[in-house]
Design goal:
The protein is an all-beta fold. It contains no helices and four strands. Helices cover about 0% and strands about 40% of the residues.
């Protein structure tokens, strides 16, 4: 089994609370109330979270 050096996730806050996370380098998608991951396994050496927010900016 090959050790993963890095997983890259796009993490999006949900409007009603919690988060959706999609791994950009592996076929992983998850939803959770917090950003804790890998409780039952040995984690990779790096986990990169890319936080995605949809913001509305007022235009004067």
């Amino acid at each position: 089994m090959e050790l993963m050096n890095e997983l890259v996730f796009a993490v999006t806050p949900e409007p009603d609370g919690g988060y959706c996370a999609e791994c950009l380098s592996e076929g992983i998608f998850t939803q959770a109330g917090s950003c804790e991951v890998f409780r039952d396994r040995t984690p990779p050496t790096t986990i990169r979270l890319h936080l995605v927010r949809d913001e509305v900016l007022p235009v004067a």
